[in-house]
Amino acid sequence: MVNDMDNIAGTLQQSLIQIITSVLTVIGVFILMLTISWKLTIIALVTIPLSILVVAFVAPTSQRLFGRQQAALGKINDQVEETYAAHTIVRTFNKEEDEEKEFNRRNHQYYQSAWKAQFFSSLMMPMMIFIRNVGYLVVAVVGAIQVIHGQITLGNVQAFLQYTNQFSQPIAQIANLSNTIQQTIASAERIFEVLDEPEMDDKIKETPVLAGKNLPKVEFKDIQFSYTDEPLIQDFNLKAPRDKMVAIVGPTSAGKTTIINLLERFYDPQGGHVYLDGQDIGSMTRDDLRKHIAIVLQDTWLFTGTIFENIKYGNENASDEEVYHAAKMARADAFIRELPDGYQTVPDESASNISQGQRQLLTIARAFLADPEILILDEATSSVDTRTEVLIQEAMNALQQERTSFVVAHRLSTIRKADQIVVVNHGKIIETGNHESLMNQKGFYAALYNSQFAGN
Q1: Which residues contact 303 (CB under 8 A, 6 or more apart)?
Q2: Which residues belong to any copy of the ABC transporter domain (predicted)?
Q3: Which of 61, 90, 218, 347 has its CA 20 to 30 A from that of 16?
Q4: Do 303 and 248 share a structural domain?
Q5: How far apart are CA 54 and CA 51, in angstroms?
Q6: Which domain, by its residues, includes 386?
Q7: Domain edge (last residue) among 195, 228, 261
Q8: Does 224 share its domain with 296?
Q9: Does residue 423 share a domain with residue 276?
Q10: What is the pLDDT of residue 45?
Q11: How many Å apart are CA 286 and CA 290, to the nearest integer?
């Protein structure tokens, strides 16, 4: 995709200017030719439809071949980027030779696509030169005949022949640029495949607000959802009370993260409703909905900029003191001040100059600053050591105070204090309760919990 953008940028910066210049030259020379002889001008114009025929013959095939070339180049770049980023894994598993073979295979595919595209497009210029010379010859012969009959002077014929060259040269240049243009079109098609993907439906549903007292903060009601034709979530019902912690647990691919995606409206359910304070979230814009929610993910992400700017991302209107307070509440202030530049430290591209746990604390500080009504913690401690997990858990416990929170966790020790634990499997709730009641049931949750501590 980057190569495609570069191709389009290059065409707009260079080729477009040359095309405009050539068009203006053709128009100016055409007017001068008419002032000398309209008959010879008509003869000279015959080369235009011939040129168009050549372009019409070469361009479609050239465009198709350039499309294959760009696709092959994209695959090479993907592998190079992937191998470079994961070079440690590649070396650890002795896959250097395999990666080289795969690169050679993809490079050969690129070579096959590229030489065909370049060869076919290179036919354009010789054919255009041939047409230009034929036109020049015909004008010279007809002009000589007219001179013999006294219909035109020799000087005018000589001048007209010069104009004929100037007239055909820009046309040949435009045709020759078709190589670049076809490559650009191929790049544009690949980009527009992404841009033309349908946007998410922004229609606001007209759903009546639920009436009554003591409504849950969030309610999932009769939810039906699937990514494919295979049903994932069926008849899902869940009520999350205000200012309570709801933990969602279950095996891999049980639908835990999908439930969070539905609450954030990254997807809309095919059936049922999700209510926030009794209002269907489908009747709210996504912007309005997400103002109520903050999320801390397993995969932390820090943007380019200082640590201070990364925390302030949660609330651009926050004061400096509010940023520092959020860092203290997230248990991040101490390690930040120990860094050489403190809050002005700029994490490198992979944020390797701070640990994974420290990165997680920064994302928690960001959520603190957002001050949400609803907090989502999705596997937030799954990739840190036990000591750091305790620190993060303290920060998350502080963050959850007086908020409705959803916690998705594989480490069941982190959700023992949850007010409500929802056990999900195959998109359905199979058990619900707190830790003690679920352990007493000796069901799915108890087996899952005991399996994690069987060696202790």
Answers
A1: 309, 310, 313
A2: 218-451
A3: 61
A4: yes
A5: 5
A6: 218-452
A7: 195
A8: yes
A9: yes
A10: 83
A11: 6
| Pairwise CA distance, residues 182 & 122, whole Å | 12
- Whether residue 212 lies inside any domain: the answer is no
Residues 175 and 292 in one domain: no
Kindly state whether residues 6 and 142 are assigned to the same domain.
Answer: yes
Q: Looking at the structure, tell me whether residues 17 and 149 fall in a common domain.
A: yes
Helices of type H across 215-374:
256-263, 286-290, 307-312, 320-329, 333-338, 356-370
1 pLDDT tier (thresholds 50, 70, 90): low
Mean pLDDT calculated for residue range 361-376 = 86
Residue corresponding to tokens 């003869």: 43
What would the pLDDT profile of 272-296 be if each residue is shown by its tens digit?
889 988 888 888 888 888 888 888 8
Domain CATH number, residue 93? 1.20.1560.10
Q: Which two tokens stand for residue 442?
A: 């000796």
DSSP 3-state percent helix, strand, coil across the chain (nearest 5): 60, 10, 30
**How far is Cα 58 from Cα 181, in angstroms, rounded to an integer?**
12
Which pLDDT score, from 0 to 100, does residue 243 have?
84
Of 100-114, 149-163, 190-204, 284-298, minimum mean pLDDT range: 190-204
202, part of any domain: no
The answer on 369 and 318 residing in a single domain is yes
Helix axes 178-195, 96-122, angle to 10 degrees: 130
- What is the pTM assigned to this prediction? 0.62
* Edge-to-edge strand ranges of the sheet holding 420-425: 293-297, 374-378, 404-408, 245-249, 420-425, 428-433
Map tokens 């940028």 to a residue.
9
Distances (CA, A) of 250 to 261, 385, 445: 16, 22, 8
Residue 425 domain flag = yes
**Do 80 and 191 have their domain in common?**
yes
Q: Is residue 226 situated within a structural domain?
A: yes
What are the tokens at 284? 């709210």
Tens digit of pLDDT for each residue in 187-201? 787 778 777 877 777
pLDDT of residue 104: 92
Q: What is the CATH number of the domain that holds 446?
A: 3.40.50.300
Report the length, in residues, of the chain: 456
Domain boundary among 144, 161, 195: 195
